[in-house]
Amino acid sequence: PILILGACGQIGTELTMELRDKYGRESVIASDIREGNDGLMQSGPFELLDATNYEAIEDVVMHYEIDEVYLMAAMLSATAEKFPMRAWNLNMGSLFNILNLAREGKISKVFWPSSIAVFGPNTPKNDTPQNTIMEPSTVYGISKQSGERWCEYYFKKFGVDVRSVRYPGLISWKTMPGGGTTDYAVEIYHEALKKGSYQSFLDKETRLPMMYMDDAIRATISLMESPAENLTIRSSYNLGSMSFTPNEVAKSIQKHIPDFTISYAPDFRQQIADSWPSSIDDTAARKDWGWQPGFNLDQTTVEMLENLKKG
Ligand code: VAH
């Protein structure tokens, strides 16, 4: 069986539903610090669980005889800047809990998400390489860089089968994101339908690596199902799909809602975004486990508007 921590989050919700479709609803235990939406709660077993509480996680792992854990609980970049110590404790405490359960042989495989936030202001911005300068300037990025180092250490030192991808900004309609810098790319679609206009908290030309959620879920499961011997990266794989600016999203929306207007009022999240790459080189993921992106910006816009319209 599989346990998902942070199952009610933006990625966790969709990952839970997809894994349940694939492996059966009783084989996937969802957990989070609070209950999730009805769709998730009615789709299979759920446990209220604090990802920083080792004993509580161990009890659930033993009770359900869990083999694999997807650790999707974290505090994201914007919120982490407001609560640095809480972010560090949650992001690192939860990772140590899961790595140590694996080290003790209580679980056999771990997925842990990293992020393009591991890169910093002096990282090459275009086609950012798998291995490059990484001096993250955000609490969240520091926790992701440190988490990557620990994942690789537990793999090399204790043979822990932990796998990871550096997610770009993710766009989805099923669950609102929480506290991210890339969340503008989700909010804009909601506002386009509700108000016909959006005030972006990132500047017109802020180009960031982005991905539609269906691609992110497919990548995650594809990596977890790959033979261990194929994997050459045990820190975290670069994962790319598309890169766009708020201006380009607006233009894509205007193909469907001609009167949609966008305005720009950058806030504290602008300097977070400015420290991140514009595009990612994901050659290693394509070579080791056959990664291929699916949705481009216009296809993402169609998916978002169609599904949000259904309400
Ligand atoms: C954030 N959505 O904005 C997350 C992600 C690359 C961005 O890590 O913090």
From TrEMBL:
Transmembrane segments: none
Coiled coil regions, renumbered to chain: none
GO term, biological process aspect, one: L-threonine catabolic process
One Pfam family recorded for the sequence: Epimerase
Positions of the NAD-dependent epimerase/dehydratase domain: 2-240
Family, similarity comment: Belongs to the NAD(P)-dependent epimerase/dehydratase family.
Protein name, UniProt field: NAD-dependent epimerase
Annotated organism of origin: Flagellimonas olearia
